[in-house]
User: Fold these one by one.
Assistant:
Number 1:
Amino acid sequence: MEFFPKIPTIKYEGKKSKNPLSFKQYDADKVIAGKTMREHLKFSMAWWHTMIADGTDMFGVGTMDKKFGAVSDMDVSKNRISAAFELMQKLGIGYFCFHDKDLAPEGDDLASFHKNLDIVVPLVKAEMDKTGIKCLWGTANLFSNPRYMHGAGTSCDANIFAYAAAQIKKAIDITVYFGGDGYVFWGGREGYDTLLNTDMGLELDNLARLLTLSRDYGRRNGFKGCFYIEPKPKEPTKHQYDFDASTVLAFLRKYNLMSDFKLNIEANHATLSQHTFQHELVVARINDALGSIDANQGDPNLGWDTDQFPTNVYDTTLAMLEVLKAGGFTTGGLNFDAKCRRPSMTHEDLFLSFIAGMDSFAFGLKAADAIMKDGRICDFTKNRYSSYESGIGKKIVSGDTTLEELYDYALNLGEYNVKESGRQEYLEDIFNQVMLSAD
Amino acid sequence: MEFFPKIPTIKYEGKKSKNPLSFKQYDADKVIAGKTMREHLKFSMAWWHTMIADGTDMFGVGTMDKKFGAVSDMDVSKNRISAAFELMQKLGIGYFCFHDKDLAPEGDDLASFHKNLDIVVPLVKAEMDKTGIKCLWGTANLFSNPRYMHGAGTSCDANIFAYAAAQIKKAIDITVYFGGDGYVFWGGREGYDTLLNTDMGLELDNLARLLTLSRDYGRRNGFKGCFYIEPKPKEPTKHQYDFDASTVLAFLRKYNLMSDFKLNIEANHATLSQHTFQHELVVARINDALGSIDANQGDPNLGWDTDQFPTNVYDTTLAMLEVLKAGGFTTGGLNFDAKCRRPSMTHEDLFLSFIAGMDSFAFGLKAADAIMKDGRICDFTKNRYSSYESGIGKKIVSGDTTLEELYDYALNLGEYNVKESGRQEYLEDIFNQVMLSAD
Amino acid sequence: MEFFPKIPTIKYEGKKSKNPLSFKQYDADKVIAGKTMREHLKFSMAWWHTMIADGTDMFGVGTMDKKFGAVSDMDVSKNRISAAFELMQKLGIGYFCFHDKDLAPEGDDLASFHKNLDIVVPLVKAEMDKTGIKCLWGTANLFSNPRYMHGAGTSCDANIFAYAAAQIKKAIDITVYFGGDGYVFWGGREGYDTLLNTDMGLELDNLARLLTLSRDYGRRNGFKGCFYIEPKPKEPTKHQYDFDASTVLAFLRKYNLMSDFKLNIEANHATLSQHTFQHELVVARINDALGSIDANQGDPNLGWDTDQFPTNVYDTTLAMLEVLKAGGFTTGGLNFDAKCRRPSMTHEDLFLSFIAGMDSFAFGLKAADAIMKDGRICDFTKNRYSSYESGIGKKIVSGDTTLEELYDYALNLGEYNVKESGRQEYLEDIFNQVMLSAD
Amino acid sequence: MEFFPKIPTIKYEGKKSKNPLSFKQYDADKVIAGKTMREHLKFSMAWWHTMIADGTDMFGVGTMDKKFGAVSDMDVSKNRISAAFELMQKLGIGYFCFHDKDLAPEGDDLASFHKNLDIVVPLVKAEMDKTGIKCLWGTANLFSNPRYMHGAGTSCDANIFAYAAAQIKKAIDITVYFGGDGYVFWGGREGYDTLLNTDMGLELDNLARLLTLSRDYGRRNGFKGCFYIEPKPKEPTKHQYDFDASTVLAFLRKYNLMSDFKLNIEANHATLSQHTFQHELVVARINDALGSIDANQGDPNLGWDTDQFPTNVYDTTLAMLEVLKAGGFTTGGLNFDAKCRRPSMTHEDLFLSFIAGMDSFAFGLKAADAIMKDGRICDFTKNRYSSYESGIGKKIVSGDTTLEELYDYALNLGEYNVKESGRQEYLEDIFNQVMLSAD
């Protein structure tokens, strides 16, 4: 059964095409910087937003049909699988990401949930085998059930911690079964609503315990991929412990988890923490922790996670520049953690939205490559620091000096001042001109 | 010569007093929880705001007289010393903090700056000896001179790095001479304005190098106090590397500086990073890194560092609660990194502002003590986590379990759900009632 | 049937009481400034948050039981009525506010919705008659049904405009039947998600048309109360047209609606628009447009409407100060547009939360009265502007001067400067001392 | 004497040029939509940022030379004139804007200030006559002198009100002498720091009085141009009365000033008030109040006015789209209220920054024109509202219906729902493709 009968396979038609159901920028087999666009971008579909989210928000019920003609919960889950693979094939998307709860109904307790999963998960696997579509990463939903109201690994109730552990075990098993390259911990409700009732020290210790147990289990049971933490500063809790990339790095270093964990950077979470998307990617990259990307965008005037499809080409270009500088994705990819706006309620909007997002990142890749080839911006930055390559600068970098030596050196400089301008406006102009000429 | 002839020594007159020039809450010798209020609070004057800042802002020139009758730069510096100690004595403030540049004119180059310092610094020391007033901490101003436009330790120019090192050496020397208990690194312009011209990896490595060199110098030369980093997320640069407490902890852990460095938490910097003041104090405390406090307050609707005198008693109570939980200050104290509003331009306003701030923290101490003695909030929090003291919870905390065991345990729980409410509103109400009855 | 059998009638026990189920500040019959606290405060229960909201948020399903033992939608609606009046009586709350949709199930279409309302509404009226509890205001929910995805009065679809008009007609009828003193327009989805598809000029004209039609209908059909617009800057849409008090005033003036409409100011909406609650109240007051108040509080670090029960006594004191300055409420009151935190999931939390909110506003009233009686702050402000009471100032205020005259006058002033300090810190200190001594 | 000897006249060289000192997008004589780019864009230089601002910020002194070789204040003022006209000629900028205080030293009192102005102003006029460069608008600086610490028209001191009036009179005289097309009121310190000492009602009445007096004087004395108010939400005061476009419209309507005043919309002020630049332009346009534009950009992660040169082509395209929809500028233009970043401290950076800004707006014009010619986005929006062109929709718009009729109509619709998607993502994609293909 075809779920999107009016939607053809989406083809690249070039930037002058006015066919809404075509790619204008994403030419999957086109080679850029030694790899195809497909290999660079590793697009992934997020099961929750694409197959499940129906437009519900805090002020209104759903506007979109995500039941795909089925009635019972189990049938809905099954139809979503077929619809998902049809959508991914028509769009040429090679990966998907999932929460345990996305795939099967929860049932009344953990046993029935896992029973449901055992029925549905092989059906997903069968489609994967048939289509060649892969799992980018899996995760467990440890936030929507009321039992996680006080957190999961950071719950004040040890039974809930155990419940979370059980869900993670099963989700890791499924991820391994799917051959997934990654397993994500997004902090759900790991945070606090008020410090008046919170023992932050114990909660963070416990969170580290949960991650350590999970890491150990995964490594013992065939998971060879990468564990990721996905930073987010707030929402649903007042304060999420995984506030931003640096906060997560502090946590990983404190609890000795750096060797198994990297970061899954989400654009909208970055901006909620008052950073740019690029900033978070750089922080991850220079700490050898750039794992994967949740591709979306927020609204700088809104204070919640809007999870919009990414269409700002400045952001996509800067993001792909960081990916290129990091040498490309290894286990990670570009997962569209994005949902259609509530009034974009048709199935056609789903495809139009993915096209918008994929074209925006495809353009970003081309523009990033053009910027690297143009070389002016990278060269400017490199030259700026050349004073550290010889003389006193070299001694500083190599650790071969003291405060006393630097004191004497500086006193001899006399009324020394900075010689070189930072040239921000000029660099922004180069960026524009190269980006706007990219193709 | 008396600089504030109309201002008497400020005395405690109790909360019903309508004498503006009296304390209503701060009764220095009153004993609370085993120590005098003076010992708990360790109030400190910030030389830059109190003796120098004249109300200049980005849209207007100064409104306040901070020249204290002198004309030449050197005489101004000297008069400020007398005025500062007169002010501290009249207010009963026991500590001060300073930047190198606060004390003497910069002159034309580093040599003349240091010559000027060598004249002025002994005059400060003489007043200290005479009055018993101490130095809480010292620091070097590595941001206002144009030479630091690209940063100091993170400058792209190695000569500027050397210049910064030289200033730090001298500032450490002065701090040791004063017997100061702390030395602060506030990140000034250690950050970036645009990532287009920035090598963040190198800049952070260099910053760590500068701090390591400074630590080593200090330890070799008699500095036994604590080094502090003071987090701030932005301003003057677009992004300051010392964004918040967690970011600084990530940095200290990465570069192995945890044993010598703690945090100097500023209230207004906390809120600029979208945290509460209390949050930053808790993060510092649970990482054994609560060093000292810059006491002020910002405006939740403004996006810059307003450095207002602290008058919100919720904030002062929560802050003192954290200080009490941490066992009180050791090397640190409460430094009023606060300035009078630009239209509060008289010398009398200086005193009125300190009184407002000191009374607010004095009340905060009394209220925090009352909350601890009342016990209901602390007990509630303690009991919330009691499931970790036995059974599966105890095994989790002690590391004596596996994901498999937790999985089996959870499956046996059946349809388990959280039992206990978080009771936020109730706790907020207790907080109010206890605080409003504090005395 | 009693729905809260464990909850007694809540009594005033004074501020030293540790009985959670008692008032510590709210002594309903106590007379302050010539009226009882009950008359000053006019507390109101919001049907939607109290009787319906179950803790659902964007990341999780409900945690609270708001079905009150019933199963069918209609029975749930009926049980909520009994529970609501039990709750209001036990708390001594004299008013309630409602959306049409709060009272009865929507059914399949408008006709069945209205049929359901016709069954339920008389049951509410019967309880009102029995208890003496009144309706503060009514409104129509024009945002949660998918048909309002593009707005109601600002929908691009004229049929939806008609649908909204029909709901409003019925809601006004019910409000008149209840003898309600107010009718509120909260902008729901009157706004835009993207300007790319929006004709803002037409949408605002249409919104004015809907309000004008509603006003005309109400006035023809016995509604003698006040129409209110409730400003909110964002959420659920990216931009809500009723951004803040000033924006609404611009709208009311443009479309000649000032004589029938006032403002319903919500604390949390104020802070979302980067204003203080007090600011919005002052703007309303000086435009003779302070109608009613939605009492709650937000979190300065969160960018969405958290609708917390109000517990910050600075905010409640400043709010009651404005209410007193305005001469008290006429048609309006203090409606708790507030919900328990998701982890505060028990029925007991409902009562504890109302107690916290009512005590906070009761304290605010006492503190505001104390500040007015103390007089120092009001007098300071009045004296500040005394130069406008004579001489050139009087001519300015009376309009009896010209730019030329002022030019000549100023030239004669010579090097004139401001004489008086703004004394912000001193005034904040007085505020603290008077507030903390209030009783 | 040439002040920028190394800078040639900047020429258009096309987008592939790598010559930093050339235009890549701005081809002044190119005709687009019936007018030259020069006529569309009406670029203007802001005297204060370009000729005066030296990189001083709250944390450091100036980094740039803006004295142009002179020593005495008067000579500096004179040299700035020559340098300004050289710069404008080399860049092909046809307009400038000024504050009174930008042109001449203030001296000791108003009389000496005006004497200085009388010397310098004719020198400016002579350069205008020689070069054909015009004055876009003038204004008076009513915020930087300490006397305005409590505001100007809103000062609590009537003498200061008179002082402000006197400055405005002189500034209007100069603007008329220059043949300026506009006169701007930017709210400087018209706002408050604390409501505790503020009578907002009186202050706003007085502000309206000052504007009315100024309008009357201007109209009596040959000013035929447009008065503008420039909204800004905060900074330097906590709250600026001219918060945003809507707030100013409320003010203008209340005080009957709509016929003489329009808005000067600044991009960075728009974003500080949590609006997009486009939003503020639309609000101005649909109220017939789009007067002029201050072209710059802020940083979405920073809470102060950064006044960066505009380089984001989304913003410039959307802005020019609104200008085209409004029929182009009449009295207004694009004034670069922008300054070089502090580390962009050379004279060459000045030119590079203007080039970046002018090219960005030139590209924006071309892209906006392409979007209008493409037609898809405008047509989509127009069609969306077609239901208001006939039937019930037409009756709504024409005012020929009642709530009762709409009620009956809606009841007959049955289970009606919205038919059309909002298509946000699709429209964003069209926007991208058309913009990225613009030339």
Note: Chain D touches chain B through 35 residues (CB under 8 Å).
Number 2:
Amino acid sequence: MSQPAPRHSVTQLPQHNHRLQLSSPPVLSDPLAERLHRKQRLAAGYRLFAELGFEVGLAGHFTARDPIEPDHYWINPLGVPFSQIRSRDLLRVNGEGEVVEGDGLLNTSALELHYELQRARPDVVGIAHLHGFHGRVWSSLGQLFQPITAESSAFVGEQVLFDRHALRNADGTLLQDRDAVAQAFVETFAEHNLLVWQNHGLWTTGQTVESAAWRFILADDTARAHLLAYAAGQPRIPQQAESVSTPAQRELFGWLNFLPLWDRVVQQQPDLLD
Amino acid sequence: MSQPAPRHSVTQLPQHNHRLQLSSPPVLSDPLAERLHRKQRLAAGYRLFAELGFEVGLAGHFTARDPIEPDHYWINPLGVPFSQIRSRDLLRVNGEGEVVEGDGLLNTSALELHYELQRARPDVVGIAHLHGFHGRVWSSLGQLFQPITAESSAFVGEQVLFDRHALRNADGTLLQDRDAVAQAFVETFAEHNLLVWQNHGLWTTGQTVESAAWRFILADDTARAHLLAYAAGQPRIPQQAESVSTPAQRELFGWLNFLPLWDRVVQQQPDLLD
Amino acid sequence: MSQPAPRHSVTQLPQHNHRLQLSSPPVLSDPLAERLHRKQRLAAGYRLFAELGFEVGLAGHFTARDPIEPDHYWINPLGVPFSQIRSRDLLRVNGEGEVVEGDGLLNTSALELHYELQRARPDVVGIAHLHGFHGRVWSSLGQLFQPITAESSAFVGEQVLFDRHALRNADGTLLQDRDAVAQAFVETFAEHNLLVWQNHGLWTTGQTVESAAWRFILADDTARAHLLAYAAGQPRIPQQAESVSTPAQRELFGWLNFLPLWDRVVQQQPDLLD
Amino acid sequence: MSQPAPRHSVTQLPQHNHRLQLSSPPVLSDPLAERLHRKQRLAAGYRLFAELGFEVGLAGHFTARDPIEPDHYWINPLGVPFSQIRSRDLLRVNGEGEVVEGDGLLNTSALELHYELQRARPDVVGIAHLHGFHGRVWSSLGQLFQPITAESSAFVGEQVLFDRHALRNADGTLLQDRDAVAQAFVETFAEHNLLVWQNHGLWTTGQTVESAAWRFILADDTARAHLLAYAAGQPRIPQQAESVSTPAQRELFGWLNFLPLWDRVVQQQPDLLD
């Protein structure tokens, strides 16, 4: 049923003397191949999010910029269970919020957030906002992550808090204008890769679909770590990270960490490639 | 083994330009088809509750008003594992607590609660009371939900606390008269869709089987969110919801959110339709 | 492979007008059939404990008094994974700690505790001590359960705390004599059905294998409920139970609540009957 | 596909009168058989760690000293999902960090830690460092385990805390020299079997692959126990262990407790033996 698809298993990466030889994720020269690559990683991401319990009814969206029409993005069809999403089920949406490719219902709740964020950040390909349990709960405390573990440290300097309830009209009522909210969201996000939307949940970005997905998985895990650590006591906060890295290194690292998950889920659920 | 059953997958909903065109859940004109519709959603609900760990021995009941005899309701046979319940296993019960259709043992622990609540609330079709872990634990704290997340906000204005231990006879002993307890229960419930029975657990209602089931699943998740948030710190409480909705919109929203779960469980366990 | 075995599914219980007609668990007149009945429930119990994560390496034992030689009991062979235990794998042990039927290694860590407890309690058939996570953790707090939920209420008046570290020799050192520890254990247990061994875990008893197993499952769940409730806040403690019951009713209730679990696990893993 | 492999199921251990007759884990006289034995237990350990959720992207390494070249060790290929690792996938690494047997990418993040620890501890065969959730979170609190349960007691006297952030250069900046960090790590570890790397996670050692794996599983479970106990209240700390044991007994005990896990995982996933 499924065609052999391009894979980027860790075992196929360029290496020398058993050491990885790669400074950034490989780019496919054929735009159509790159499109398929992104769509399949998007579908794999939804499958993984389903396993992790990140699906809450109709909520959640994970998008990928199209490599051919860079102001278009791919998104899941509303209401199709994450565990059943295949590459061909995805919808391509343009800047007017119109579906230009694919069948299915469109989730209109956050169209302008994805669009405006991709427009403001030419480096960004993947944007993830799922309703993972621990990210939602942590967001209610209105705090950023502390470097309490090696995993948490990855977010230091990459994260920002967004208090949507602080957006008010002149008369003090809550701002409801969607374009203005989107504008504030994008300005707050700025160049970060994790946004904690207070009393709502997490958003992550990545220069690849893979790194955006990995950051989201790691951010929900980090939220859980904070919830348990602070319930049990007072974590110690190191003043300095064990190791420092550049933005490019962090992108590569996020991309690499997604690969074992990709390899496993594709082996177990090859229909996602369809 | 199982006959093709009417389905209401999200993919089959009326839509225009990839947008949902629906202001309320569709109603089946054939009463027998509507009866089957409700019974199958009830069976699917039990399967989902089993997955979510909401089954505790013999405890729990989830009922649907019959569309033909509106003072009758359908309920699970006592002691049949939730994970094995099929549509045809359900019992139809009348106002005298007699089984008028179906085979199996009747759970008599809450007959009058379901009956009286349906009598007092002609709009209600589904009533759910399962012993989900987090709902039980949260109920012991004797508090309502706060809008700490988007999901929690759905219960603001829709919930009420019931302190059954405050029901006393004139001599101060605990009220044991079942009819009087049922009356107090119904009066407390009033027009809400979530009742927190202190030191016991959660009850939800809906104008459809689907919305009652979804509210129960979301309420147990919300209980878990509160338990973890308050263990870790002090959540921030927004003074105003991000978005406001009418009761009819909330009903439609609850109904819609159940659909991905329905689609998945019917695909994985089609015998529930039998 | 497996022979048809006597089953006591809820659907086969005596009933009238869809109401259960039973005041105590049925007793099989044929002692050999009763022996097989107990062994199969024991094996099913181990399978369920495996599912629930109650297996920790070699730890844990769940025993059933033999109906023919009432000072003998049946126990699991040490080191066989709980998820693989079949009826025929069980060992029969006499009062001298000798295996008189069955093959396999004997867990000698608690022989005298099971034996002395069964000797002191002629009513007891099943005794369960597994290293379930939440029971272990709760035991470290050195407290009994409070009636914070309906499930917790089942243990009020049925539970006792055992502080093994308070057993001291005249010189203040910890008592190591195994017979003396067993004697103190039995005296503390007295007529209760739940013993909280401080800094160790839970023990439950029952007049049937089924009720002992159900009490253990419910006790570990209750421990989890207490841990989460007290982490999140201060639970409210009702002064009076919603309903009162006799010891015979509680035995029947425990036995009944095990049946849905039995029905499911036998259907899914029929090799346990072998 | 898989060849029959040497097994050490509990059911095959030397016994007399249903009692285990063994004072230390059996050693295979054929070095090649011992090498295969270790590699297969290593692969089984990765499979179990995957089940337990200890895999976090590319993180984690579990090594076994080679019995033929005792300054070489076996390690997993970087990025292969733990759930898919087979015996033949493992890499053999020498003291220069070169792969001398096997194909795949090498995880260079901790080469010198494994090597120097094995060099300093001739008794050690297995070394485990996985990113299990609860061990990571507990490490952020900067504390050792207390004997709050029987399981926790196993670590008393066997554990040490390592504060890597306290390693500073003369100018106060964080020490980055890898050899110096490795030296401090080995000196801190000393003769213990559990090291809590503050703000990072857990390390365990064993004289067998099995005992190192069991200690790691038990240590992560113990971390979870501490997190929940301290969130809920104040655990009571016994002044004296229920039973005392020698290091040799603890090694045997750890080895034995791994066997039920081994038996189960080999039955369910025999391809790990390949």
Note: Confidence is low (pLDDT under 50) at residues 1-6 of chain B.
